[in-house]
User: What shape does this take?
Amino acid sequence: MRARFAQRKLSGLAPLMLALPAVVAGCQRANPPMNTLAPKSDYANWIYSLFVEVTWLDLFVLGIVVVAFVLAVFVFSRRAGEGEAASETHTDMRLELAWTLGPAFILLLIAIPTIRTIFREEPPAPPADSLKVTVIAHQWWWEFRYPGTPIVTANELHIPEHRPVWVSLRSADVIHSFWVPALGGKRDVIPGQVNHMWFIANTPGEYYGQCAEFCGDSHANMRFRVFVDTPAQFAAWEKAQEAPPVQPAAGTRAAKGAAIFANSPCTACHTITGVSKGYIGPNLTHLASRTTIAGGIMKNDPKDLKAWIENPVGLKPGANMPALGLRGPELDDLVAYLGSLK
Ligand code: HEC
Ligand SMILES: [Cu+2]
Assistant: This one.
C-alpha cells in the first residue's frame, strides 16, 4: 500500500524531472540579459568574486555536514537489538569549543571580504575624472541628467567605457531601487535622500536594468537600459543631446505635428527645449534618439508611439499619462513630429 503510494508520487514528479534539463537549456539559450554572473564592470566583478568565494566556503561547510550526517547514520548509530552504550562524559569541552569557534570562524571568513567590498564600493567622494550622472526614479520610469550639461533623457543611460561613473540617486515619489545586474549591485532610491553608487564599465554594449523595489502597479514595467559606449561614441552622443531639438521643415507632417504638440496638454507634462516646460513626464527633446519608450517596455517606432498615445494606461497599468483622445490624421502628424526629434 505504502509502496504503491510512493510510486504514484514519484510518477507525478517524473514529468517535472524530465522537464528540468529543458528549462535549464532554455535559460542558457535565451542568454539572459540580466545576468549577475557575467560581470561587465569593476563593481560587478567584486560582487562576483565575493559570490564565488562565499560559495566555496559554503561547499566546505556542506561537506562537513554531509560527512557528519553519514557518520551519525551509518557508523555511530545504534542497531536494532543493541543495548545503549554507557556514556561517562557529560560534557566535552573540546567539542563545545569546536562547534562554537568553528562557525564563528567561518562567519568571519565571510564577513571580511564582504565588508571590504562594501567599503571599496562606497568611497566618500567621487573618484577623480568621474562622469557624474543624476538618476531620478519616477513611478514608473527613469530620468537621467548629466550635471553641468543640459542633457536630460529617460530610460536609456549612456556612459563611456573605462571611466568612473558616479551615480547620484534621487526619487520623485516612492522608494525604488536602481539595478543593472551586469554593472553592479542594487541601490535603493529613497525620497528625500541622495544615495550614490559608482563603477567603471569595461565592455561596450547594451545592458538591461530594472527597478528592484516594489513601487506600485507598474513596478515590473519600470525598466531601463544602459549603453556603454566607446569614448568616441559617447562624445558624439553627448554632442547630439546637447543640440537644440530638430525643427521640422515647413509643410511636412512633422511640422503639422509640432503645431499640434505646442497647442496640446502634452506641454503641461513634457519638456521639449524651446517648446514646452513640463516636468511630470520624460523629456522629449531628443526622443527619437532612444530605442524604447515607457520604461523600456515598448519600441520607439511609429506603431508603438501611436498605441502609447492612444492608450497609455491600458498598455502600462497606473501610468501617469492620460489618454487625450487624439486620433486619425492629427495623431499621425504628432507621431511624425515625435519621430523627427533625433
Ligand atoms: C499628465 C501628464 C502627461 C500628459 C498630459 C502627457 N503625458 Fe506623456 N507621459 C507622461 C508620463 C508620466 C510618462 C511616463 C509614463 C511611464 O513610462 O510610466 C509619459 C510618457 C510619454 C512618452 C514616452 C516617453 C519615453 O521616453 O518613455 C511619450 C512619447 C509621451 N508621453 C507623449 C505624450 C504626448 C504626445 C502627449 C499629448 C498628447 C502626452 N504625452 C501627454 C505624462 C504625461
Ligand atoms: Cu520603481
Remarks:
- The first strand starts at residue 131 and ends at 138.
- The pocket of heme C (ligand 1) is lined by residues 140-141, 154-155, 264-266, 268-270, 280-282, 287, 290, 293-295, 305, 309, 316, 319-322, 324, 326, 334, 338 (CB under 6 Å).
- The chain has two domains: 32-70+101-242, 253-340.
- Confidence is low (pLDDT under 50) at residues 1-10.
